[in-house]
Fold:
Amino acid sequence: MTGIDWGTLRKVAVEAMHRAYAPYSKFPVGVAGLVEDGRVVSGCNVENASYGLTLCAECGMVSDLIRSGGGRLVAVSCVDRDGEPLTPCGRCRQLLFEHGGPECQVETADGHTTVGALLPGAFGPDYL
Ligand code: THU
Structure:
């Protein structure tokens, strides 16, 4: 797939961020992903009084991906409360690797990169 509409992805990520449930960290996050078939899936972080049970925005996005039919993520935009690009945390890089692979593109504050660059030498399905 060529011609990724990063503007639309960022917009959907911002919309998701506004629905975050982040009363503890007060750090709302939204994320949107373009699927190989053209769908756009999204998610927001959902925190919990038992802090360690917090679900990152990417967790919600992956749930949306699977619920809406599955497929591979080709591009992801994750944003903070200001709508600025947020680089996914380590655990979520693993989620993106599982569902997008190393070629999946990721928007960061420094431009576009790939999941493979963010998680070199990743453990994945090929090892099993
Ligand atoms: N968070 C995400 O949703 N995704 C990330 O990639 C980084 C961190 C959330 C988890 C928590 O609710 C808040 O940001 C502060 O860590």
